[in-house]
Amino acid sequence: MTLVIADDSAPDLDVGFLMFASTSCLVLLFMSAVLLHQVAREYLLAFYHIAHGWVNEALRGRNTGPRYQYDAFVSYSGRDERWLGKDIVENITEGLYRSRRTLCLVSRHFLRSNWCSLEMRLGTYRLQAEHRDVLILVFLERIPSNLRSTHHRVARLVKTRTYMEWPEDPTQHQAFWDRLWKKLLEGRVQ
């Protein structure tokens, strides 16, 4: 005859409680991800683009081919397209990091655009990371200093960098284009 003794010291496994706890953790994790996305979406997007650009730049550094595919990445508001006559560049990050410079065409529309803000932010980060003159600001219209000051990135750049203004006088347009082309081609290896 065999005697079996039950051990009451082992806790009972409550499947219902485990399901409740795991479901609660998943719901909290999901809510945290949604909240993080809502609060820090533009920062996460910028971080993703910056990291993606740095990885591409590092991988490109191993190749012996040309470093840049373009002379400039042009950042502008879609409302200012008539000034360029071309559609906006579809792939912001690749265009920005494959270009020697970033050309921001600043207008009131530009300052209101989230996409333009992202492009300028990426250009500024690249400027700081590379310690080279890669960001060119061109003001398409006169923007009062009080409006500039509400856009801290623009205000800071205007204080520390040379910028260009699109001349209202048509007779000055050719001189503007000559200065812009000279700036774009600075440091270019022929």
Brief rundown of the structure:
This protein has 190 residues and is of the alpha/beta class. Helices cover 57% and strands 12% of the residues.
Write a concise keyword list for the protein shown above.
190 residues; alpha/beta; 4-stranded parallel beta sheet; 57% helix
Question: Which helices and strands appear, and what pairs or packs with what?
Answer:
Elements: H1 15-62, E1 70-75, H2 81-84, H3 92-97, E2 99-106, H4 108-112, H5 114-130, E3 135-139, H6 145-150, H7 152-160, E4 163-165, H8 173-185
Parallel strand pairs: 1-2, 2-3, 3-4
Helix pairs in contact: 1-5
What report would you give on this structure?
With 190 residues, this protein is an alpha/beta fold. It has 8 helices and 4 strands, in the order αβααβααβααβα. It has a 4-stranded parallel sheet with strand order 1-2-3-4, sandwiched between helices. The longest helix is centred in the N-terminal third of the chain and has 48 residues. The protein is elongated. 16% of the residues are buried. About 3% of the residues have low confidence.
